[in-house]
Every structure is written in C-alpha cells, then in structure tokens.
Specification:
Strand order of the largest sheet: 1-2-3-7-6-5-4
Distance between the termini: 36 Å
Low-confidence stretches: 1-6
CATH class of the largest domain: Alpha Beta
CATH architecture of the largest domain: 2-Layer Sandwich
Shape: globular
Number of strands: 12
Order of helices and strands: HEHEEHEEEEHHHEEEEE
Number of helices: 6
Radius of gyration: 18 Å
Strand content: 25-35%
Helix content: 25-40%
Length: 266
C-alpha cells in the first residue's frame, strides 16, 4: 500500500517535508532495526539533541507496554521514537509528554484521515474498539533527581492488513482498514510532529494537558477491570488526577488511585 502512495520513507524525504523547527531534526531512518527506542536511548546517552527522531520501516523486536511485542509488517506502519530533554518538568510529570504525544496523534489522524480515535488509559489509542496505536515512555533521571531524557516510542497502525496477522485481527485496527483506502505515512508523520512540537512548547509555558487528555479517555464513567502491579480490581473508572493516575471507584465505595495498569471494559 505504501508503494502505491509513493510513500517510500527516507531521512531525506522526511526532513524535506517537516514543518517543525526542531522536532525530528535530526532524523535517523532505518529500513530495519531491532528497536527504535533502544537505538535512541543509546544516542541519548551519547548526548543526542532534543528532538532527535529514529524511525524504521520495520522493527525486529518492537515492544509495547508491559514487555509485549509490537508486530507490524514492513512498511505498513509508523514505527518511531523521539528524544525529549524536559528539564522544566519534575519526574512525576513525565507523563505530560506522553499525554501531549497522544493528543498529537489524535490531531494528526483527524487532520489526515478525518477519523476520530479515542484514548485508552494510560497510553493507547483505539478506533472502533480496537487498538490503533501505542506509546511506550522510557526515561532517565539524573543523580540529582531531575529528568535527563525521555524517549517516546510510538507504533501507529497505518496500512496494516490484519489478515496477515490473524492473531491480532480481533484486537487491532489500522487506519486504512477503516478509511477504506491507503493512508500516507509521511503525511501522518509530518502532521504528528508539527502538533507534538506545538503541544510540547505549551508544556514549557506551564500548560497541563491533563484535562484535554482526559476528555478523550474512552473508559471514564464506565465499569472496568484494571490489572495493575498491585493486583486486579474492578469498579467504575471515575476520573484521572492531575498527573494522569486513574481513580477507580470500588464496589465498597472506596476510591483507589492506580498509577499503571491495563484497563478492559466490563
């Protein structure tokens, strides 16, 4: 599908199309890589600039949250990682960068395709009840307790034909399958980076993305089951707090604050 669009990505075509000032500059493009995030974490440790982008047509060991594998046929998806050095944020607010990224993906998908996904707490995007994209956030905190860097790894199903991945056909979806036509990966990437740079600059001014992010959460007000490191709990997903933690109202009336986990609707 990408070939039909003339959507053959390269560092040169990406940089030529960018409308950002610093995000995606520089761009490192790989036909195949083990993991864009692992490669970018290595670059971060060597002092790479904020805004550095590592993007690949194919990842051999792509991963999502909770060490799950991220599967995508070559040239079917957007698979990339971005480096941020948000020294203006405390480590407990690192999730703000993830929220900004999720909102930027929504911006880009709406702008390029007209489709309107929603967010699944904490870091996924869903369309028609199935997973469209995921964000994996990894960070380094200095010995002084300050954020040194954040690497955001993004997997977005653009032109995936899930008939080739029958094990995911019931749980995942791609933009092309809903739009009924191939979608340009380059156009999506350019739009996404533009909106993410804009939203990141808003973070610099002290703006919190939590309220807007929460407006797009599909599970709020719903009965859910949450699998967290502390155990499995069921209740009503009542709200999120300022830092993005889920506030779960248990059947006995208690409110539980969950920092990390997987949510399914009951």
């Amino acid at each position: 599908m990408s070939e039909a669009l003339g959507d053959d990505l390269s560092a040169e075509t990406i940089v030529a199309a960018l409308t950002t000032r610093w995000l995606g500059r520089p761009t490192h493009f790989r036909r195949v890589t083990i993991s864009t995030s692992d490669e970018l974490k290595h670059l971060a440790a060597l002092g790479a600039n904020e805004g550095t982008l590592v993007i690949a047509d194919e990842q051999l060991c792509g991963r999502g949250r909770m060490e799950r594998r991220w599967l995508a046929p070559a040239r079917s998806s957007l698979l990339f990682s971005l480096l941020f050095r948000p020294t203006f944020l405390s480590p407990d607010r690192a999730q703000f960068v993830t929220m900004a990224c999720a909102l930027a993906i929504l911006d880009a998908v709406r702008e390029v395709t007209g489709l309107q996904p929603g967010l699944k707490w904490p870091n996924d995007l869903q369309l028609h009840g199935r997973k469209l994209a995921g964000i994996l956030t990894e960070l380094e905190v200095s010995t002084e307790g300050k954020l040194d860097w954040i690497v955001l790894g993004v997997g977005l199903n653009v032109n995936v034909d899930f008939r080739e991945l029958p094990e995911l056909a019931d749980t995942a979806v791609s933009l092309s399958s809903v739009a009924k036509h191939p979608v340009s990966r380059l156009a999506l990437l350019v739009s996404l980076l533009f909106h993410l740079e804009r939203r990141y600059e808003m973070l610099r001014t002290g703006h919190s993305p939590t309220c807007e992010w929460a407006e797009h959460l599909l599970s709020l007000g719903q009965e859910v089951t949450v699998k967290s490191p502390e155990g499995t709990f069921s209740g009503v997903a009542e709200a999120v707090d300022e830092l993005g933690a889920l506030l779960l109202r248990l059947p006995d009336g208690r409110c539980m604050c969950i920092l990390a986990g997987d949510v399914t609707l009951r």
